[in-house]
Amino acid sequence: MAKKKAKNKKTTKKSRKFSLKLNRQQKVVLGSFLMLFGLALIVAFISFLFNWQADQSILNEFSNRELEARNWLSKFGASISDFFIYKGFGLASFSIAFLILLSGIYLFFGFNSANLRKFWFWGILVMIWLSIFFGFFSGKYALLGGRIGFETNDFIQDYLGFFGTVLLMLFLFIAYLAIRMKVTPEMVGGYFRSGKKELQDAMKEHQSQVAETDEEKDWKETVAKPVVEDKEEEKAPNIDLSEDKPIEKKVSEPSPQMEINPAPEEDVAMEVEAAPEEEEEDNLSTKLVKDFGEFDPTLELKNYKFPTIELLKDYGGTITIDQEELEENKNRIVETLKNYKIEIAQIKATVGPTVTLYEIVPEAGIRISKIKNLEDDIALSLSALGIRIIAPIPGRGTIGIEVPNKNASIVSMRSVIASAKFQNAEMELPLALGKTISNETFVVDLAKMPHMLMAGATGQGKSVGLNAILTSLLYSKHPAEVKFVLVDPKKVELTLFNKIERHYLAKLPDTEDAIITDNTKVINTLNSLCIEMDDRYELLKNAMCRNIKEYNAKFKARKLNPNDGHKFLPYIVLVVDEFADLIMTAGKEVETPIARLAQLARAIGIHLIIATQRPSVNVITGIIKANFPARVAFRVTSKIDSRTILDNQGADQLIGRGDMLFTQGNELKRLQCAFVDTPEVDKITEFIGSQKAYPDAHQLPAYESEESGTGVDIDVSERDKLFREAAEVIVTAQQGSASLLQRKLKLGYNRAGRIIDQLEAAGIVGPFEGSKARQVLITDLAALDQLLNEPDN
Ligand SMILES: Nc1ncnc2c1ncn2[C@@H]1O[C@H](COP(=O)(O)OP(=O)(O)OP(=O)(O)O)[C@@H](O)[C@H]1O
C-alpha cells in the first residue's frame, strides 16, 4: 500500500513536472509574443524570397554593422529565413511561421489548446512532406525544398529510385487525406458525380448515422406528453375571524407567493474558435440540425406513452369548512391569549387540507416572544396535537397559529399532478410534493435542490412521500431523460418499480435486480455512481460546458460528436430508503461516496434523495447534512430529531399521515404530502412496464471494489491474461507476494492483488497470512506446467 502511494506520488510529481500551467496573464503575454513572432517570420520569409541572393553575403558577417541587409527584418530576418528556408525546409517553412502565429492566437484568446496539439502534429508532418516533395525540383530552384527537403529526397531516391520515391510520396499523401481529412473513395466519387455539395453531404450523413441511435429514422415525430385535465387551482378559503364580526366566508386573496426568481443565468461568453476546422464543425452542426432537426433522445422509444391521469385515484379531497370548529378554535385562541393579557386586533383563518392557519395581529405593544412562549398553553386549551406557532410569519407581519383540522382531507396525487402548476412547471425535475397550508400545489425542482434529505418516524408518510416523488418524475420525464437508482434495504417499499426496470432504472453491469436491497451492493453502486460522475465531468470538460443542461442542449444541437464519446446524459436520481440501516452496517464506506456525490454531482445531473427513520447525528452526519440543503421532515418523535433534520423544532409537533415540513435552507413550509397508494403505483408501473422498453436497464460503469476477487472460487475463464506469466514469476521466486508481481510484470496494485487471488484459487499460492508473503505451493516450473495442463485448470 505504502509502495502504491509512493508510486502514485512519483507519477503525480512526474506529471506535474511536465505540465506547463500558465495563468491568464502569462498566457496573454506569451500569446502576444508568439503572434507577433509568427507574423515577423512570415514577413521575413516573404522578403527572403526576393532578397535571398542579395543578402547572402551578410550571413557570414552578422556582426558587421556596416553591411545592410535588404530583408524587411534586416539581418535577423535574413538569418532566420536562411536558417528555415534555405538550410531547412524550403517554402514549407511557412508552415512553422503559421503554426507559431496560430499558437499565439490560441493562447492570447484562451481557446482550448487540445486542438493546437493536433495542428502542430499535422502541420509538422505536412511541412516535412512538402519539403521532400519540393525536393524533386530543388535542383533548379534551391529555395523550394530547402536543404533538408533536397537531401532527404536525394536519400530516398538513392534507395527507392525516382519512381519509388514518387510512389512513396503519393502513398503518404493518400494516407494524409484518409486519416486527417477523412476522405474515402466513395466521397471522391460522389464529388465527381454531383459536385462539392454532395461530398459535404456524404460526410455529414456519415457523422449523423453515428448520432442516430435507433433503427427507426423518423426524426420528426415527438413523444406525446400525457394528456391531463388541467384543473383550476383550488384556493384555500380564507375566513376573517375578527372578534366583533361574525364568521363570514371570504374569497381569499391569493396568498402571497414567494416568487423565486431564478438568478439570471450568467451570460456564457461564446468562444469563437479561430481554427478553420472547428468552424467547419459548427457549420456541420447547423446543417445537421437543418437536415434532421435537433437530436431527439426520446426517439428510441418514440411511441412511449406517458401514464394517464386516470391511473391515479381521486380521493375527492375537497376541503370541507366546519364553521363551528372554526368559531370554537377562534374563541379558544382569543381567550387563552386574553388570559395572558394579550389583546388581538384582528384574526383570520385559512383552511388547508389538514391544518387551518389562524393569523392574528396583536394589539400594538405586545411582544411576539410572549405569544411564542404560549405554544403549549394554546395547544392545551385547544386540546389538539400538532399546534405550531409561527411568530411572525415571514413577509406578512402577522403571527400564525396552525391548528390541525378535526377532519383532514386527503391531498390526492391526482390533484397535484393535474394542477396547472405541475403541468406548466418549467423545471428539469419537477416534484409535486403536495399542497401548502393555503391549498396551493407545491412543486419544486429537484435539479435545483440539488439533493434531499427526508426523515420521519415510522408510519408517518415517508414511503408515500418517496412514491409521490417518483410518481411526479414518471409523469413528467421520458425514460430517456431520467434514470433511477433505487436502494431499498427493507426490500418491500420500492419493489413495485421493478416493472419499469428497462425504462427508468439504472444498474451495475452483470447484476440481476436493478433495485438494490443488499448493503454490499450499495457500496459498489455508490462507487460506480462516483465513476459515472467523473466520466460525466470529463465529457462536460471536453464539451466546454458548465452543467448537464448546457451539455445536453449542445448535444441536441448536434454540436458534440458521438464519435468522441459524447452522448445524451439522462438525469440520475438516487433514492435511498432507510439510510440509517445502511450507515449502521457499512459506515464510512457508504458515507464517503455519498458525501462525494452530494458535494460534486449537482452539475452533472446526479441527485440524491435519502430517507431515514432515525434522524440521529450518527446517521445524518455533519458532512451529509452540509450537502443536503433541502430537507423534508415528517413527524418525528423528539425535538432533538427535529433539530437534527431541520435545524429547527417543529417536526415533533406534526400530526403524521403526510403532514410535513419542507425547507430549502430558508423558511420552513408546512405541507400536506400528496397521497399515492400502492395500488396506484402498481397501476402506473404496470402501464409503463407493458410498453416497449430499452433492451436492458441503463448501465452504470462497472466498479470493482479492492476486496472483490478475494473469493477463492474464481472461474478459470475469468483469469487474467498474465495469469500464467505471473504464476511462473511466483514459482521461480518462490515468494507469493503481489508487490513482486507489480515489479516484475509492471502491474497496478489492484490487478496484481487480483492475480494473487486467482493463483490462490488455482492452488499455486497459499492463503493470506497477514504481513508475511503467501506460501508458494508449487516447487518448480515443471510442476506448475503439469498443474496448469490439467483439464480443469
Ligand atoms: N400524504 C398522506 N396522506 C394521507 N395519509 C397518509 C399520507 N402519507 C401516509 N399516510 C398514511 O400513513 C400510513 C403510513 O405511511 P407510510 O407507509 O408512508 O409510512 P412510513 O413513514 O414509510 O413508515 P415506515 O417507515 O414504517 O415504512 C399510510 O398507509 C397512509 O395510511
Automatic annotation (TrEMBL):
SMART domains, per the entry: Ftsk_gamma
- Quick one: a GO biological-process term for this protein? chromosome segregation
Domain named FtsK is located at 439-643
The record's comment on protein family reads: Belongs to the FtsK/SpoIIIE/SftA family.
Q: What is this protein called?
A: DNA translocase FtsK
Alphabetically, the GO molecular function entries are: ATP binding; DNA binding
Q: Where does ATP bind?
A: 456-463
In this chain, composition skew of type Acidic residues spans 264-283
* Pfam families found in the cross-reference section: FtsK_4TM, FtsK_alpha, FtsK_gamma, FtsK_SpoIIIE
Q: Give the SUPFAM superfamilies listed for this entry.
A: P-loop containing nucleoside triphosphate hydrolases (SSF52540), Winged helix' DNA-binding domain (SSF46785)
